Amino acid sequence: MTGPNTALAFMVRPCKPTRGARHILLEDIADGLFRGPAKLGHGIDLLVRDAQAQSFPQAKALSLIPDIAVPHVLDGPNGTRGLLVFDGTLIDALIEQQTLGRISAAPRVERPVTAIDAALSTGFAQAVVGKLAEVSVDRRDASALAGYNCGAPQTDRAALSLAMSERSYDVLTLTLDLGPGLKTGTAVLMFPAAIDPAKPVRQQVNPDMVAALQDSELHLRAYLPSVRLPVKTLLGFDDGTIIPLPDGILGRAQLCDRRGVTLGKGRLGQLGGHRAFRLNGAPPPAQTPTVEMDVPPPAALPKEALPEPLPDMGEDRVSPEPAALET
């Protein structure tokens, strides 16, 4: 039997948690971080029943903090901050152990946390952070967790959001048994997310595409440097007008594609009766140099001013594979 949202349920897939070496490390050291300080410092036979670590964006990480809880800010190196959070049940157990000498099996009475709760839980938070410092020295893979100190509790969620300003956090969530048949509390430990070095992405080359590109035709054009003419001379142009060019201009030609991108520079000449271009250097600067010249009006040009034919480069003066041009 299917309902109206069946198709949507099939399309929506839950996101897989983001996990790495840091998360495995946090889960591995979780028991030692909490059991030893609880037993030696507070006489509590604490047992870590479950420990799960993964990365979350900042907003999602802070949303994992229980509504009734005392967050202890951890001041880290270079201005970084972590967080150690005890939920209301764990806070009650710590207070009962310190005031009554035992933990009651009675269920927790729902109430907001107070400054007294924060003060009486600070000792355990300091003990956990002290154990973390020992672990970061004993284990080489935990060195990135070194340098954190237990700061002041911060129960104001708005101020806590401003203090925890990293983009993402590695979050360790623990379920703690506080004695056989007694209370079960929750603790949350978070640090700025570890950044794994980016792995180089191997470029996949399609050999068929490379071959097709190499076989494709590229249309090239050769250009002589631009010249400037008076407007009155330009207005006097007619069919058969001769424009004299400065000496050496053939040796300053440019080879360009259809977009006008300069591919090289060289000399314009002839080879076997055809126009030819000899490359002789790297591409010229982006701006093409211009030649200032005053050209007399076309009517005043004598017959001797007619340009000579393009020089023939000869077989021995042209590179083995000259670049042919469109005509």
UniProtKB/TrEMBL annotation:
<dbReference type="Pfam" id="PF01052">
    <property type="entry name" value="FliMN_C"/>
</dbReference>
<feature type="region of interest" description="Disordered">
    <location>
        <begin position="280"/>
        <end position="327"/>
    </location>
</feature>
<keyword id="KW-0966">Cell projection</keyword>
<dbReference type="InterPro" id="IPR001543">
    <property type="entry name" value="FliN-like_C"/>
</dbReference>
<dbReference type="InterPro" id="IPR036429">
    <property type="entry name" value="SpoA-like_sf"/>
</dbReference>
<protein>
    <submittedName>
        <fullName>Flagellar motor switch protein FliM</fullName>
    </submittedName>
</protein>
<feature type="domain" description="Flagellar motor switch protein FliN-like C-terminal">
    <location>
        <begin position="212"/>
        <end position="280"/>
    </location>
</feature>
<keyword id="KW-0969">Cilium</keyword>
<keyword id="KW-0282">Flagellum</keyword>
